[in-house]
Design a protein that fits this description.
The complex is a heterodimer. Chain A is mainly α. Helices cover about 70% and strands about 0% of the residues of chain A. Chain A is built from nine helices and no strands. In chain A, helix 2 (about 25-40) crosses helix 3 (about 50-70) and helix 7 crosses helix 8 (about 145-160). Chain B is mainly alpha-helical. Chain B has one domain (about 5-75). Helix content of chain B is about 50%, strand content about 0%. Chain B has helices spanning about 5-10, 10-15, 20-30, 45-55, 65-75. The chains are: A mainly alpha, B mainly alpha. The interface of A and B includes residues 18 and 38 of A.
């Protein structure tokens, strides 16, 4: 059976990047990831020996922690309601390997913000959190086919929204 | 033209392979169903089944051009494992 640390190594990078991609700052994302795994640690004796179940639990806890954080900070930005002005904000203190990467991340986050929330949720869980489609289906409570349709639509829309950026980075 | 919901639902893959069903559903949704003389009552789930089955197989690759661009941009490191007692 995997330890909590094993799960952390696999899931923490995905969760951190998913949180940043869906509107949180890097610093905030790191806090949420750590708080999530403190909770997972406290539940370690009752964790199922099932990677997908643990992954689903981790993302659910993280989403709830973020909702609480947003509510406590009296902020208007929720994961499903990223304001366009907020979406372009560069995550504060995020380590970057280059200005290009930071620019690219900002452009992609702006594009995500322009997607309908249901498309953004399905696509970011698929591409950034690297969840299998059936797991996304469970996570967001819709059929696998509906998840597929949402991912497909999100990709088509993102191709349009990022057409200039895609040329620059080819 | 009559379309049986159960047939579409159970044969969604076959129907979608022809693409015609999906197109028909789109048309019916865009316009007034009655004007097409369609006696259909497709649920949203049935429509999505048809569309999903008709999607290209490579639509769900994470390593296509767009996927690589996005994954490359979001490769921030995770924080260290929290200190727990």
């Amino acid at each position: 059976m995997k330890t909590v640390e094993d799960h952390y190594k696999t899931l923490a990078p995905k969760l951190t990047n998913w949180l940043v991609a869906t509107g949180s700052s890097y610093a905030e994302s790191c806090d949420i990831v750590q708080d999530t795994f403190v909770k997972i640690w406290n539940m370690r004796d009752s964790l199922q020996d099932d990677d997908e179940a643990v992954s689903g639990l981790v993302f659910t806890i993280a989403r709830n922690l973020r909702k609480n954080l947003v509510r406590d900070n009296n902020r208007l930005v929720l994961q499903d309601e990223i304001g366009e002005d907020e979406a372009g904000a560069t995550p504060k203190s995020a380590p970057t390997t280059s200005d290009d990467k930071e620019y690219l991340r900002r452009k992609i986050t702006e594009a995500f913000a322009k997607l309908p929330p249901i498309l953004r949720e399905a696509y970011t869980l698929f591409q950034i959190a690297e969840m299998p489609i059936h797991q996304i289906s469970i996570q967001i409570g819709v059929s696998e086919n509906l998840v597929k349709v949402r991912i497909f639509r999100a990709k088509e829309k993102l191709k349009e929204l990022l057409s200039d950026v895609r040329k620059d980075f080819q | 033209m009559d379309i049986n919901l159960n047939n579409i639902r159970t044969n969604s893959t076959m129907a979608a392979n022809t693409i015609q069903a999906s197109t028909l559903v789109d048309k019916a949704k865009e316009t007034n169903l009655a004007s097409y003389d369609l006696t259909i009552s497709l649920t949203e789930a049935a429509i999505e089944d048809i569309k999903a089955a008709g999607l290209p197989e490579d639509a769900f690759k994470r390593d296509d051009e767009l996927g690589k661009l996005i994954s490359g941009a979001f490769s921030l490191p995770a924080p260290p494992f929290p200190t727990v007692e």
